[in-house]
Design brief:
- It contains three helices and ten strands; from the N terminus they run E-E-H-E-H-E-E-E-H-E-E-E-E.
- The protein is α/β, with parallel strands linked by helices.
- The strands form two sheets. Strands 5-4-3-6-7-8 form a six-stranded mixed sheet, sandwiched between helices. Strands 1-2-10-9 form a four-stranded antiparallel sheet.
- Helix 2 links the parallel strand 3 and strand 4.
- Helix 1 crosses helix 2.
- The longest helix is centred in the first third of the chain and has 19 residues.
- The protein is globular and about 50 Å long.
- The two termini are about 15 Å apart.
- Bound molecules: inosinic acid and magnesium ion.
- Inosinic acid (IMP) binds next to strand 4, strand 6, helix 3 and strand 9.
């Protein structure tokens, strides 16, 4: 695999599509065991989580449904700090188990804001699945229940993660080459 360039920034290979697929399968198996017979609602946080949520959902071996919300806090490679909920949840979650699916938890602001809104809807249970987790960047007090990969606080693209809307369709995950 070679480096890729977006907006004049160079990124190097970090996590391969094979590693992603293996880990997603493992998490899907865990969620299947935990929620079998309870018809969980899988809530995909758009835009970045759509490939992860799709692969995770298709690997669940139990009854489950999927729904989508859209949140945004990033501009360029920095978290803007302000979380805007663009599209809300239309499905009723009251009394249901919910698994929130994120691409990455960085400062945790996006997830903390969404979890507060979600709790107000009184689901039976909330679990959080994130493909990537940057614990060193975490500001909010939260612990994801399912983590694909714990990574250092570096900027990542690919498999849904973007740089200003670009690079979401890379099959592998790349990290910003800070020497470039
Ligand atoms: P947080 O609110 O700071 O936790 O940021 C979460 C959101 O910011 C994620 O859902 C991503 O959309 C975006 N984000 C955080 N880190 C990265 C990154 O390294 N690359 C691309 N997007 C990121
Ligand atoms: Mg996201």
């Amino acid at each position: 695999m070679k480096t890729v360039t977006y907006n004049g920034l160079t990124f190097k290979p970090f996590i391969t599509s094979d590693q992603i697929a293996k880990r997603v399968g493992e998490i899907a198996a865990e969620i299947t065991e935990a929620f079998r017979g309870r018809n969980p609602l899988i809530v995909c946080v758009l835009n970045g989580a759509f490939p992860f949520a799709s692969d995770l959902f298709m690997n669940l071996d139990c009854d489950a449904q999927i729904a989508f919300v859209r949140l945004q806090s990033y501009a360029g490679t920095e978290s803007s700090g302000e979380v805007r909920q663009v599209v809300g949840l239309t499905e009723s979650v009251k009394g249901r188990p919910v698994v929130v699916v994120e691409d990455i938890i960085d400062t945790g602001r996006t997830m903390a804001k969404f979890l507060a809104d979600l709790r107000a809807e009184e689901p039976a249970e909330i679990k959080v699945a994130t493909l990537l987790f940057k614990p060193d960047a975490l500001i909010e007090k939260l612990t994801p229940d399912y983590v694909g990969f714990t990574i250092p606080s570096k900027f990542i693209i690919g498999y849904g993660l973007d740089l200003d809307g670009q690079a979401r369709n890379l099959k592998d995950i790349y990290v910003l080459n800070q020497e470039s």
